Amino acid sequence: MDLMDRYLKAVGKALPEAQREDIIRELSEDIRSEMEDQQSELGRPLTEAEQQALLKQRGNPLLLAARYQQDDRRVAFGRQLIGPVLYPFYIKVLSFNLGLTFVVIGTIFLALSLSGQHIRFNDILSSCLLQLFIQLGVVTLIFSLVEKSLTKHPDRWDLSGTCGGIRLGVKIEKDISTPPDRSKWISRFESVSIIIACMVALVWMTGVQSYPFLILGPAAAFLKLAPIWYQVYFPIVFLTVLEIVRAIINLVRPDWTLFRAVYAVFVHCGGLAIVYFLIRAGSWVIAADSAGGGTSSYANAAQIVNQWIYYGLLVTAILSTMMLVVRVTRLIRRPRQGLGSPRITEPANGN
Amino acid sequence: MAPGTINHDLFENLRLELRRGSLILAVLAALRKEQYGYTLRKTLEEQGMAIDEGTLYPLLRRLESQGLLLSEWREEEKRNKRFYRLSADGKVTLKQLLAEWQSINASLNGML
Q: pTM above 0.80?
């Protein structure tokens, strides 16, 4: 894949899907025409540095793509927090987080309903609204920080990622010259998404410690988390922080693919160990002491929820083990090389 | 800021605002003759109305969606290019806009 293709791929990632192909074709034609013009002026093919300069002149792929967004949607409270460039990514992350949360809430209420508990509409509504409020706040805060960085440093981008290169102010390489195989580099969009998702998870897990209703909803009045969750809390937080650290390192060094592969195996093993201890615990929710009368029906509800969790953990353990085997196999079959690709040197002009 | 010095950012914003409307007029005027994106950009540049591709192509799409331009993909020199030209509505709008621009220009000349 040549420089122009990588640039266009980066632009394409942030373009409206319906027009993507058409816009890319037109931009491609424009770049080719400009290159040909320069070549006929110089009487020779353009060097990589010249091609690079020509593409740099066109600006950050994310910002270029944003100019094609006709709806111009943004998030603003007085001043703009998230502009049209990041808005589509913001909506994707928020939808994913909220979708996952609502599935969890729905499962809990379904289990309670099946166990014969009386579920009020208000309970469901208040749980959903609370989650909506928390997720909206955290995701908006993180994206507004990214927006601030993008606005402050619009020229900080490169073509190593596949999302148009949000660099979050970290400027390591200044070159977009072709490395041996950049197509296998870790996308910066992926790294940013992991950082955001892990931070949201950390905030949520911290909240669940003090406010179990964040996960149990109104069932927190008569159910509580079993002690095993408090025992595995710090290991889970530790693994999440490790993943954030890994994503930050790969944000700066997307070429460290072997590092990620080795790191992922260790983190994966840690995750499996936690799942093992969870399965061994045998009970994950118990009837709350304050439940008072109706304790037997609450115990019944706890039993149903526990059964669901048990099956969930078993499936997680099986899938996770299979993934670990795949990861280790890939790692063993991987051609021998250093921790990552060779570092790219800065161009002579220092651009 | 010392008295008499110009706030560069402010000037740049005002300049861009002033140019934005004129660019639409320039693009419509240049497309009385059919052209594809790159030659249109070169034409505008030669006439002193340089416009970067990140502004030009989204503008062309917007004008097309507003019914002022027509476009078609056609092969030229063994490459597919998208050619743009004024639509019937575009011709009428250009005429009206030119009249408006000349009226503004005359008013400004009277004031300056």
A: no
